[in-house]
Write a structure and sequence with these properties.
Rossmann fold
């Protein structure tokens, strides 16, 4: 059996979109990790795969619904069997959908919770089973401002992100003594994405003065969390532009 030092190192990014998730995947690939990236439609990941491979890295795309238990179980089993042991799992599904409490439907509220919290539980459970056996690993959960305060018209999103933070806290307390680093990142502010550029051009204009978050800089912090020595692990990290009110 290969030693931990000679085995391939795998970073699994759940919810590898065009901004933060993709940047995290590229960052870990740059450090020699085989990046396994997921979203519901695998073909949408091809540009990211091309970026990583053209830069000399290794990457695999998987289409998977993170809310479905059988799909998650199959995904983790396949990666562990065909690619390598998962050293890092990043959960990066957002579900930021505003709606008035007076107009929110039970179906949409439940769906947002499924996306932002329940799917995190499913993936964390399956990955943790492997990490505990190897007595090493890192799990990082992407949170949001809504994890610490519920804004008007964001009842569903705030409820889900509060629950995600609690899941991460509980996992950190259980798994930390087993040499597994669990961290929760609060991303507080607009991110440089096509969505922000199109829908909030005034906010996007603040990019010129470092007023919105650069996905590559977010990714640098995720790498830093994974690289921390275990005598000084961070559980929660806040990231926000210098000019963001909080």
């Amino acid at each position: 059996m290969a030693s931990p030092d000679t085995q391939p190192k795998v970073a699994l990014i759940i919810g590898a979109g065009d901004a933060t998730g993709g940047a995290i995947a590229r960052r870990f690939a740059r450090e020699g990790y085989i990046t396994c990236v997921t979203r519901r439609e695998a073909d949408k990941l091809q540009p990211l795969i091309d970026q990583i491979t053209q830069a000399g890295g290794q990457a695999h795309a998987f289409g998977s619904d993170a809310r479905k238990e059988e799909a998650v179980v199959a995904l983790i089993e396949r990666i562990e069997a065909e690619v390598g042991p998962i050293e890092v799992m990043v959960f990066n599904i957002g579900a930021n959908v505003p709606c008035s409490l007076l107009e929110e439907t039970a179906r949409k509220y439940f769906k947002i919770w499924e996306m932002a919290c329940f799917s995190a539980f499913l993936n964390a459970r399956e990955v943790a089973k492997r990490m505990v056996g190897r007595q090493r690993g890192t799990m990082i959960f992407t949170g949001a401002t809504a994890a610490t305060r519920g804004a008007a018209n964001f009842a569903a999103f705030a409820g889900a992100k509060h629950a995600l933070r609690a899941l991460a806290q509980s996992a950190a307390r259980e798994l930390g003594p087993k040499n597994i680093h669990v961290a929760h990142v609060i991303v507080d502010g607009a991110i440089d994405t096509e969505f922000i550029r199109t829908n909030w051009p005034d906010k996007y204009a603040e990019k010129a003065t470092d007023g919105i978050l650069n996905p590559d800089h977010i990714a640098d912090n995720y790498w830093h969390l994974h690289s921390q020595p275990r005598d000084a692990w961070t559980f929660e990290l806040d990231l926000r532009p210098w000019s963001e009110r909080w």
